[in-house]
Amino acid sequence: MKKTLFFVALATVMGFNNAQAVDWDWKGDVRYRYQSQIQEDADHSRDRHRLRVRFGMNAWINEELSAGLRLATGNEDDPISRNQTLTHHFGGKNIMLDEAYINYHPMMFCGDVNLLLGKRATKSTLFVEDDLLWDGDLTLEGITLQYGKDIKGKQKSGFGAIAGWYSINESKSENDPYFVSLQGAYKGSASDLKYDLGVGYHDFVHYYTDYDMNIVEFFGSIGGKVSGTPWKLYGMYAFNTASQDDNIFIDDSERDAYMVGVKLGKAKKPGQVEGSAEYVHIESDAVAAEFTDSDRNGGGTNCEGFKLNAKYQLVQNMTLGVTYFNFNDITGPDKDLTNHLLQADVVVKF
C-alpha cells in the first residue's frame, strides 16, 4: 500500500495525475564499495569506502507514451560518477535528478521507433558496447530518435539506427558546446552464436575553444555457450577525425582508442559466477576525456592497461564483485609509473 501511495504521489509531481498508467516499472540498486588506489611511486594508498544509490521508475501511460524518472547519489559537477565517499563526519549525501525523460513511440511504426526528450542513461540512449567512449554512470541530455530499441533501451534483433542531439553546456553564448550522434547497428544470430556489429559518428561542436572532435567508432561482439557456460568476445575502436588545421591542440599521433575483452559466465542466479578481462588503449585526443570511464588511470585519456573483474551472486538480487585496474600513461613523465586500483563491491538490486 505504501509503495502504491508513493508512486501515485510521484506520478502527480511528474504531471501524470490526469493520465491512466497501464504499467509501472520501478527499480533501484544500492552499491557499497571499498576502493584502494596507489601509484608505484606513492608512499601509501588512498583507501575509500563509497556508496552509490539509484532509484527510479518508468510509467507506460498509454500504448504510445511513457516517461521515466531516476534519482541517484553523486555530485552535479561530476557527470561520470554517482559515488558518494563516506566522509565529512557522517554528513548527509547528495541526491540528484539522474534521469528524467519522455518517450513517445507512435504505433504507426509498430513500436520500433522511440522519440526521447530529456535526460537518460547513455546505454539506454545510444548503442553502447562498453565504456571506451562513455562512462557507465553518464546520463545524456537532449533529443534522441531511435529505431530498433525497446522502451527500456534494450537493442532488438535486426537493424537499428540512432540520431541524437545533446547539450553539453549552456552559457548564453552563441558557441555553446553540444554534440550530434549518428549510429547504425545490427544484432543477429548464426547457428548457436549471437553477434552484434555497429558503427557510429559523434560530432562535438564548440567542445572547447579551437578544439572540436569528430569521433568515428566501430564496435561489435560475438558470443555463445560452451558446456552450458556463456561466453562473449567484444571490442571497440574509435578514431578522432577532426582536422588539425581547425584544432590547433590536436596531435595527429594521438587520435586512436581501442578495447578488446572477453567475458565468461553469467551471475544471474545464486551460486553463479562470471568473470571478464579487457585491454584498453586511449590516446590523448581520441575521445572526449571528461566522458570516458572515470576509474581507468584516474579518468580521462592518455592511458593504457588492463582490467580484470569477477562477480558472484550470493543470494537472489545480491552480488559480490571485485575489479582490478592496472594502467599507466601512454606518454608524458609518468608513463613508466603504474596506477593500481582495487574495488570490492556489494550490490543489491530491487
From TrEMBL:
- What would be one Pfam family of this protein? Porin_5
For this UniProt record, give its keywords in alphabetical order, as a comma-separated list.
Signal
Q: Would you indicate the residue range of the signal peptide?
A: 1-21
Question: InterPro entries, from UniProt?
Answer: Porin_5
Tell me which domain of life the UniProt entry assigns to the organism this sequence originates from: Bacteria
For this entry, the protein name equals Porin
Q: Which organism is it from?
A: Chlorobaculum parvum
